[in-house]
């Protein structure tokens, strides 16, 4: 067990562990441990967090689930070819990649119907618990970075854990994210929903997590276009400029592009991306938003936004912007940050949704339509206040 004042040895258990975001996080963590790269993009490496009792890079142990059997090194080499990861860094951390590979286990694939969701939840929970015992971990933070799923409205009707478990035991198509979240709660693990999938947002699961003293955070990591929107939209509002429309187009390739080409799956992402803008500017703002799969872009994600506002005496104000970046490289350091911060919250005795981590998410738990809970500047202030409160002792 670790120092009582610190979270100690922490597991980072990744759902979708062989995907681009997870692989980038695993390579990045190993490179940070070895001092091969600076912690660029890691919020918790900023000077403001120097006194926070966070687990160190060398205290984080990696494991995870995935339905793919591809080797992590193969995924990493693909990311090198795509220009996401430096070849020299991947080669230097090859032993650490092999160690992580040895800790990956088969995930749950509802498409195969090979097991019920209930049986899968027990199996996945057993993997998480065995991982914690094997490495003498103080806690395991489960982070869902798997592919986005279509919405699961049936989850809102599950009022108790017994209702949920009955559905999981039946021969029904239950989202893999819900099974993974149920497994995490069963294993006593705090949880991060880094995707817009249903996961732990099922009310029965949230209630069970609170009952068991488990914190959780989400949903849908905020890495690009939505980050810009939650920083810029308040500027228009505070200057009394009336935004009439805010149109957005997202171009992406790779696995995300293929997944989100399905309209049903894209609906989860579009809802998460739109909620904050409407909360900040009002529902009357026209905000068409769509996602296009452009395979040639590979790992690069491009977002175009066109903002039309009205100024004094009806004068037009127009803003056009383009954001282009490798999304996996933006998301991976946030996965590391959230692992450290959720471990801190769990160690301090927090339970339920960690609303102070809203700056990391497009659709933060507990934010609803409250504009202040979507403003990036307010979110960052709340994060720093929360970390200071825990650094000085006492949970919120």
Automatic annotation (TrEMBL):
Domain Myo-inositol-1-phosphate synthase GAPDH-like: 224-328
InterPro entries in the record: Myo-inos-1-P_Synthase, Myo-inos-1-P_Synthase_GAPDH, NAD(P)-bd_dom_sf
Pfam entry (one): Inos-1-P_synth
UniProt cross-references to PANTHER family, sorted A to Z: MYO-INOSITOL-1 PHOSPHATE SYNTHASE
Family to which this protein belongs: Belongs to the myo-inositol 1-phosphate synthase family.
Protein name, as recorded: Inositol-3-phosphate synthase
Lineage, broadest ranks: Bacteria, Bacillati, Actinomycetota, Actinomycetes, Pseudonocardiales
């Amino acid at each position: 067990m670790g120092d009582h004042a610190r979270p100690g040895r922490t597991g980072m258990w990744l759902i979708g562990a062989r995907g681009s975001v997870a692989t980038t996080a695993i390579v990045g963590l190993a490179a940070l441990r070895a001092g091969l790269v600076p912690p660029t993009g890691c919020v918790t490496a900023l000077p403001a967090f120097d006194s926070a009792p966070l687990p160190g890079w060398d205290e984080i142990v990696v494991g995870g689930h995935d339905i793919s059997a591809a080797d992590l090194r193969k995924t990493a080499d693909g990311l090198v070819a795509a220009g996401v990861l430096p070849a020299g860094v991947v080669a230097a951390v090859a032993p650490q990649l092999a160690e992580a590979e040895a800790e990956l286990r088969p995930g749950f694939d509802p498409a195969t119907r090979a097991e019920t969701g209930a049986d899968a939840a027990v199996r996945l929970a057993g993997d998480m618990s065995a991982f914690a015992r094997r490495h003498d971990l103080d806690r395991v933070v489960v982070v869902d970075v798997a592919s986005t799923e279509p919405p699961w409205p049936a989850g809102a009707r599950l009022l108790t854990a017994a209702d949920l478990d009955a559905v999981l035991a039946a021969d029904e198509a239950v989202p893999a994210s819900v099974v993974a979240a149920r497994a995490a709660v069963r294993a006593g693990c705090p949880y991060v929903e880094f995707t817009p999938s249903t996961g732990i947002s099922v009310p029965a699961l949230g209630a069970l997590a609170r009952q068991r003293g488990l914190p959780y955070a989400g949903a849908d990591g905020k890495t690009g276009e939505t980050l810009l929107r939650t920083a810029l939209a308040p500027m228009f509002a505070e200057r009394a400029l009336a935004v009439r429309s805010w149109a957005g187009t997202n171009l992406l390739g790779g696995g995300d592009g293929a997944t989100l080409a399905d309209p049903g799956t894209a609906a989860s992402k579009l809802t998460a991306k739109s909620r904050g803008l409407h909360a900040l500017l009002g529902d009357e703002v026209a905000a068409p938003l769509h996602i296009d799969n452009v395979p040639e872009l590979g790992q690069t994600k491009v977002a175009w936004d066109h903002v039309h506002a009205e100024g004094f005496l009806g004068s037009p104000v127009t803003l056009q912007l383009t954001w282009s970046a490798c999304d996996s490289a933006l998301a991976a350091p946030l996965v590391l940050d959230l692992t450290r911060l959720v471990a801190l919250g769990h160690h301090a005795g927090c339970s339920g949704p960690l609303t102070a981590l809203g700056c990391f998410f497009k659709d933060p738990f507990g934010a609803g339509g409250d504009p202040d809970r979507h403003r990036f500047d307010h979110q960052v202030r709340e994060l720093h206040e929360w970390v200071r409160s825990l650094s000085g002792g006492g949970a919120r």
